[in-house]
Hints:
The structure holds two protein chains of two kinds.
Chain A (H helix, E strand, L loop, with lengths): L1 H21 L3 H21 L3 H26 L11 H24 L15 H9 L3 H22 L10
Chain B lengths: L1 H8 L2 H34 L11 H4 L2 H10 L3 H11 L10 H17 L7 E4 L5 E4 L7 H10 L2 H11 L2 H32 L10 H8 L16 H4 L1 H14 L11 H4 L9 H26 L11 H12 L7 H27 L7 H30 L2
Antiparallel strand pairs in B: 1-2
Amino acid sequence: MENxxxxxxxxxxxxxxxxxxxxxxTVNAAVCLxxxxxxVAGIFALLxxxxxxxxxxxxYAGAVVALFLFIVMLLKPQTEPKKAYKKASVVAGTMGAAxxxxxxxxxxxxxxxxTAPAAEVFHAGLKDYGAMLFTTYLLxxxxxxxxxxxxxxxxxxxxxxxxxxxxxx
Amino acid sequence: xxxxLISILTSPLAITIYKGVAAILVIFPxxxxxxxxxxxxxxxxxxxxxxNRAIVPWVAWIPFLGRFLQRLGVFHVMADGGxxxxxxxxxxxxxxxxxxxxxxxxxxxxxxxTVSVVPFGTYFDEAxxxxxxxxxxxxxxxxxxxxxSSLGVYSLILAGWASNSKYPFLGSVRASAQLISYExxxxxSVLPVFLWINAPGxxxxxxxxxxxxxxxxxxxxLSSASWGxxxxxxLMPISAFIFLVCLxxxxxxxxxxxxxxxxxxxxxxxTEYGAFKWGLFFVAEYSHMIVGSGIFMLLFFGGWNPxxxxxLGSVVGWMHQITGWAFTIHPLFVxxxxxxxxxxxxxxxxxxxMAIRWTVPRFRYDQVMRIxxxxxxxxxxxxxxxYAIAIAFIQK
Lengths: 169, 396
């Protein structure tokens, strides 16, 4: 049962991720991205990482892809035929995929898997998770938060037209 | 042969499916009846009779009851449903067919999935421990509800986009902006409740059943810990108010239904829809309202406890003492009683939704955005800060 669910979610993830790249229609690509994220969330749920899977759906599937669709529809309500890929990007894409495949292959065939039982942390409740975020991993959390703030300020500065306010520039 | 069949029919997977189907079989008709109630409440508020004509012939032969039911308008549900099923289900030529048909289905999926993590009743086992009736008792509880219901926005976006015409498109753009804006304040407004119940020394949870347990007065075996079962609506009125306002915006109800304001957007995202596809959008909207009202009642108004400071457990205990009947403490009776109380509260809440519709006029779209970002969001953050400090002092 779990195995078949795993295959189902993996197929959904990989198949729709391919469709995101290959599909000509941008709205279809965004919907495929949504399906791909749902597949990843399903795999997280199978790994007992419920919090992660719920957060993935809440933030990425629920909000980020909705904004993608919003922007796609706002900028290009009529779909136009996409240009063919450049030669360089096709070569780069193929090489990247080949490298990734090779890496995965060597990892599966020669990788050293730890046989030790999984750390207790992974089965801990939400509370331990929150406590770790605010103690052990406080600095990374703060850094990420700061990065997001900078990105937000950057968007405001880049997109807002400061007309008639010379000193604002 | 029969053994094999029985083993399939009683497997855990099958039992889970039965439970899910049972929950849907309750939600779906209530959502249908709500559309009828909406018309009747509207008529009542506006002082007119409302729908009072449809009747099944052989019910009309019953002397007084038949006439009463006709006046009540209960048969209009069947008439409306039958009409929606049998009228021509046209698909305009200029739409994107795939998304046009997928959108109403996408509206139904999140609306009916959220039910699985919402507790709707309780019973007491032999040790007197309250066991919640819930399809999936997850630790992430409320977060799962928020996550799944946030997927509901796609049906509105895709319906508007697939319709390939001006007003539906504008409506879907509004929808995506409004639903994302109000999700933020909604999530922040419930945090004080969970700060309070996740006191130091307890295992952390976001489950709704624990919130009701606190409001039932039994908490870590002490009634003093929860102040005798106070409801969070009294402890945190501002949180409750913010949640309620966001609930109106998220379920796309007046005064926040700028998404489908017929004055400036015709019918918005469902302009091009008709017949059963149109009906599915409305069943989904009412299902959202039912689940949302249920969560509001669980969080802030005691869930299945009949009155504040009067938990279900003591009511059942008194009933047993006074009457002496054994069935009053039977788990089945307690379960049905708790479900009835909870459902009653949810229906009262839906009546409130409908009464508000005819009381507060619709906001303009810029006002909706201003309320969401400039009023509710700062208010909910300030509320969270105040309660975080207060709870730290109380639970020290």
